[in-house]
């Protein structure tokens, strides 16, 4: 078997004027990413996602990957990550190289699963897994004024029993947002907060201590991802677990997070970390050192499918059959047609349960009509 065709497909969706949303760093109206469709000489199609703008992803694929991918046996996919670090030399750690590698890798695993008739999570060594626990990623900062309680109330009404909210605009604002979320979610729900790297260490520590009484499951990106000494300082001074990884790429950056005990939870994004092959290596490193793994998901439906399959494969070590912390996966509650419209059967987290596709490969079918609506290269 060999890959005979590969196509990069940029997709985007833009919110109406005045409806921008985001985090403490700023607002945005456009969501964009790049899908990759590969086809083999046996007619099998595989899908992947490079969580990067279309023109950059296309140029990176054509310049650095196309010659190797077209003609390769998808079953040899794990060697591709190795080669991305050594040929071309020095480029392997680049975010766009890792993003395109992610797309190729996931698409090949999709083909492999379809060829052998198994879902990807089983191929990665996971046990049979039918459901995961979704958490609502919500309470974004918005351009339009709206009550801060509204998005949490909507998430609870939809059945979510866990949520992650945006903070990072000052201690007073942080406390108000966390207090509101906790009151609505109730005492038993998992509540996470995301600063998106908008603080210096001292600011992050002040907020962490101010919200500690609300039983925070983790604080995400308290300082910028490149501020390694800042992470270590925050880790030393607070008791709340720290999570990071959406802005880290490839096994070597994650190895530093794990080896230095910089974080308690690593969060690889399957559209940027190097794909399923690299994510499996990252998970092996993390679980070996008893660091938790929770994938970051802010992708299209294809990237989400990869993350769900990956999450379903992750070891529960050191837990046995009694797992006090179920595997949680992020479900972005913003208006995102690239997630909600691109599949024949969209992911549905209602009732606080997210089904793991059991079909071969990623277990998804891309809706061709929807794909054409959101293509950004027409």
TrEMBL record:
<keyword id="KW-0413">Isomerase</keyword>
<dbReference type="InterPro" id="IPR029017">
    <property type="entry name" value="Enolase-like_N"/>
</dbReference>
<dbReference type="Pfam" id="PF13378">
    <property type="entry name" value="MR_MLE_C"/>
</dbReference>
<dbReference type="InterPro" id="IPR018110">
    <property type="entry name" value="Mandel_Rmase/mucon_lact_enz_CS"/>
</dbReference>
<dbReference type="InterPro" id="IPR013342">
    <property type="entry name" value="Mandelate_racemase_C"/>
</dbReference>
<dbReference type="GO" id="GO:0016853">
    <property type="term" value="F:isomerase activity"/>
</dbReference>
<dbReference type="GO" id="GO:0009063">
    <property type="term" value="P:amino acid catabolic process"/>
</dbReference>
<feature type="region of interest" description="Disordered">
    <location>
        <begin position="1"/>
        <end position="26"/>
    </location>
</feature>
<protein>
    <submittedName>
        <fullName>D-galactarolactone cycloisomerase</fullName>
    </submittedName>
</protein>
<keyword id="KW-0479">Metal-binding</keyword>
<feature type="region of interest" description="Disordered">
    <location>
        <begin position="342"/>
        <end position="365"/>
    </location>
</feature>
<dbReference type="InterPro" id="IPR036849">
    <property type="entry name" value="Enolase-like_C_sf"/>
</dbReference>
<dbReference type="GO" id="GO:0016836">
    <property type="term" value="F:hydro-lyase activity"/>
</dbReference>
<dbReference type="GO" id="GO:0016052">
    <property type="term" value="P:carbohydrate catabolic process"/>
</dbReference>
<keyword id="KW-0460">Magnesium</keyword>
<dbReference type="InterPro" id="IPR046945">
    <property type="entry name" value="RHMD-like"/>
</dbReference>
<dbReference type="Pfam" id="PF02746">
    <property type="entry name" value="MR_MLE_N"/>
</dbReference>
<dbReference type="InterPro" id="IPR029065">
    <property type="entry name" value="Enolase_C-like"/>
</dbReference>
<dbReference type="InterPro" id="IPR013341">
    <property type="entry name" value="Mandelate_racemase_N_dom"/>
</dbReference>
<feature type="domain" description="Mandelate racemase/muconate lactonizing enzyme C-terminal">
    <location>
        <begin position="148"/>
        <end position="241"/>
    </location>
</feature>
<dbReference type="GO" id="GO:0000287">
    <property type="term" value="F:magnesium ion binding"/>
</dbReference>
